């Protein structure tokens, strides 16, 4: 994989970077989308409400939201230092997918990259009975070849905030990502919706260029961090000139603002805060929760938190720092104290002088489980019979770092996705494909993940919200079984596996398909920290258009044969 990206971007044109916005903007007018949903009562959504069981009942809107994306090579300077990037419709982040709860969504993706295949995954979207649109190379599809277009179709069965990103090599972290907003009810009221707020680490080299070093020597130090795609940087190679720009927003005193936080980082867990302000947390991933307040929120890679901030600090100052501090326990950044945006009150444009809360001192753990109470109360079956006990391991194979969840480091291949193997009646999968079959509809799977390494891992499961029964940063013993929580435990699609500890989760086989589960640290994903669930195999073929699947793979094979593109097994595990 290393080197391919460099060759591709030599042909790049210049990209005009999106400017940081300086005033509140409402991403979509929720007051006109659905009757009854107003700033005074966000719990109402037409004939539905925050009390509706969204797993069982979804509005039939009859509306289709259609988007056209083009993936392109480019150059950009998000913090004032120009580098090669990949873009969606010429920008980073790409366009936001906006839909209402119950809408059908169609996304056409054209791969105009000069020398790479690609795909687009809709992170956290459950893809109920739409597994072909999960967008994972080597699992649900072959890579989309340059010049080809693929169409993804899915329904917004839940509401909240997320992001889409490429699931091919490191493209998500080179710029192939953007926001997802599904409008619906909320557990607390607010005046304005400011949309997605992306928190990401940033390197002045491409992630592809860093990948060899990460696979040989461990995670490299990132140069900077961005808030919604922008930040400043003190350029030591140019007389310490400050370049780039802060992300800024203007608050009206007394008003309240919804921020949809998304951690889209390669390998950084951020502590997010706004000086002097309190965050009211109303949603985790795609799960509305009973609101709670905090000064600082720790957000892991791939996680989302929706928060409400009230502009009630005008007596203190007119300008406040917004901070995204990479937690030093699990993040390495050369500029940790200066990943900041600015909140202005009224017409002020001054630089803040406010002081931040204490951050960056945790062990990169999730928010306390007792705070993450789903508003819609649901509970798994109460007998913890460990279906799978999986150990996380780290090894060095021929000088390459390899991770594994279970006994085998993950390796799949672009030209032979699991979906194609299902159609080809393969029953004996390669050991490195780490396929676990779940044949019985609605059966519960209980999973104990044990981690003997001093590293925190964000565990992401496609196609499901899972229940977090428990977690701790010590070795699991039989005594821990009695401490597991079955009474409306937290539900989400990304949870942090503690260092030297364990994570117990449960999910139900209620969604036929081939679902990836992996660590959302980019280096670890690429180094084999993944497995796949083959759920209700007998129902999978009916979900796919076999002709389209085979044709797209044939197109990839034809392009691959003339391009010289190779999949290097040591530093590219296929996803």
UniProtKB/TrEMBL annotation:
<keyword id="KW-0732">Signal</keyword>
<comment type="similarity">
    <text>Belongs to the multicopper oxidase family.</text>
</comment>
<keyword id="KW-0325">Glycoprotein</keyword>
<dbReference type="GO" id="GO:0016491">
    <property type="term" value="F:oxidoreductase activity"/>
</dbReference>
<dbReference type="Pfam" id="PF07731">
    <property type="entry name" value="Cu-oxidase_2"/>
</dbReference>
<keyword id="KW-0677">Repeat</keyword>
<keyword id="KW-0186">Copper</keyword>
<dbReference type="InterPro" id="IPR001117">
    <property type="entry name" value="Cu-oxidase_2nd"/>
</dbReference>
<feature type="domain" description="Plastocyanin-like">
    <location>
        <begin position="72"/>
        <end position="185"/>
    </location>
</feature>
<dbReference type="InterPro" id="IPR011707">
    <property type="entry name" value="Cu-oxidase-like_N"/>
</dbReference>
<dbReference type="InterPro" id="IPR045087">
    <property type="entry name" value="Cu-oxidase_fam"/>
</dbReference>
<feature type="signal peptide">
    <location>
        <begin position="1"/>
        <end position="18"/>
    </location>
</feature>
<protein>
    <submittedName>
        <fullName>Multicopper oxidase</fullName>
    </submittedName>
</protein>
<dbReference type="GO" id="GO:0005507">
    <property type="term" value="F:copper ion binding"/>
</dbReference>
<dbReference type="Pfam" id="PF07732">
    <property type="entry name" value="Cu-oxidase_3"/>
</dbReference>
<dbReference type="InterPro" id="IPR011706">
    <property type="entry name" value="Cu-oxidase_C"/>
</dbReference>
<dbReference type="Pfam" id="PF00394">
    <property type="entry name" value="Cu-oxidase"/>
</dbReference>
<keyword id="KW-0560">Oxidoreductase</keyword>
<feature type="domain" description="Plastocyanin-like">
    <location>
        <begin position="420"/>
        <end position="537"/>
    </location>
</feature>
<feature type="domain" description="Plastocyanin-like">
    <location>
        <begin position="197"/>
        <end position="345"/>
    </location>
</feature>
<dbReference type="InterPro" id="IPR008972">
    <property type="entry name" value="Cupredoxin"/>
</dbReference>
<keyword id="KW-0479">Metal-binding</keyword>
């Amino acid at each position: 994989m290393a080197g391919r990206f460099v060759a591709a971007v030599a042909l790049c044109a210049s990209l005009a970077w999106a400017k940081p916005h300086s005033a509140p903007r409402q991403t979509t007018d929720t007051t006109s989308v659905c009757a009854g949903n107003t700033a005074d009562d966000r719990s109402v959504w037409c004939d539905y409400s925050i009390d509706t069981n969204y797993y069982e009942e979804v509005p039939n809107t009859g509306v289709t939201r259609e988007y056209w994306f083009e993936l392109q090579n480019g150059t950009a300077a998000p913090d004032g230092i120009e580098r090669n990037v990949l873009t969606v419709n010429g920008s980073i982040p790409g366009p936001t997918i906006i839909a209402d709860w119950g809408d059908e969504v169609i996304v056409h993706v054209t791969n105009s990259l000069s020398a790479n295949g690609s795909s687009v995954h809709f992170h956290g979207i459950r893809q109920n009975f739409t597994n072909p649109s999960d967008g994972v190379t080597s699992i649900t599809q072959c890579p989309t070849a340059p010049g080809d277009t693929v169409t993804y179709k899915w329904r917004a069965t839940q509401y909240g905030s997320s992001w889409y990103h490429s699931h091919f090599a490191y493209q998500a972290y080179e710029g192939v990502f953007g926001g997802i907003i599904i409008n619906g009810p909320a557990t607390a009221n607010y005046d304005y919706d400011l949309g997605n707020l992306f928190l990401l680490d940033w390197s002045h080299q491409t992630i592809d260029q860093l990948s060899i070093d990460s696979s040989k020597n461990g995670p490299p130090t990132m140069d900077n961090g961005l808030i919604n795609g922008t930040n400043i940087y003190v350029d030591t190679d140019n007389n310490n000139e400050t370049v780039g720009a802060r992300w800024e927003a203007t608050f009206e005193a007394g008003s309240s603002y919804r921020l949809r936080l998304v951690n889209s980082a390669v390998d950084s867990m951020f502590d997010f805060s706004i000086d002097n302000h309190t965050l009211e947390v109303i949603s985790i991933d795609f799960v509305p929760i009973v609101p709670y307040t905090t000064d600082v929120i720790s957000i892991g890679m791939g996680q989302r938190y929706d928060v409400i901030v009230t502009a009630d600090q005008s007596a203190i100052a007119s300008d406040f720092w917004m901070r995204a501090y990479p937690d030093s326990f699990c993040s390495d950044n050369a500029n940790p104290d200066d990943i900041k945006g600015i909140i202005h009150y009224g017409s002020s444009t001054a630089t803040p002088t406010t002081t931040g809360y204490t951050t960056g001192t945790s062990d990169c753990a999730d928010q306390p489980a007792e705070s993450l109470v789903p508003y819609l109360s649901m509970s798994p079956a109460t007998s913890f019979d460990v279906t799978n006990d999986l150990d996380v391991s780290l090894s060095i194979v021929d000088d390459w770092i390899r991770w594994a969840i279970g006994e085998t480091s993950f390796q799949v291949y672009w030209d032979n996705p699991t979906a194609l193997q299902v159609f080809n009646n393969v029953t004996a999968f390669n050991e490195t494909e780490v396929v676990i079959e779940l044949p019985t509809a609605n059966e519960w799977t209980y999973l104990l993940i044990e981690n003997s390494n001093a590293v925190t891992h964000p565990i992401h499961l496609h196609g499901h919200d899972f229940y977090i029964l428990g977690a701790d940063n010590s070795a699991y013993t039989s005594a821990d079984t009695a401490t597991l929580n079955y009474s409306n435990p937290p539900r989400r699609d990304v949870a942090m596996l503690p260092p030297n500890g364990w994570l117990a989760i449960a999910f139900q086989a209620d969604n036929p398909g081939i679902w990836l589960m992996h660590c959302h640290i980019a280096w670890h994903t690429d180094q084999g920290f993944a497995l796949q669930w083959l759920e209700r195999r007998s129902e999978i073929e009916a979900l796919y258009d076999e002709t389209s699947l085979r044709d797209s793979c044939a197109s990839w094979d034809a392009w691959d044969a003339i391009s010289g593109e190779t999949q290097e097994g040591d530093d590219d595990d296929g996803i």
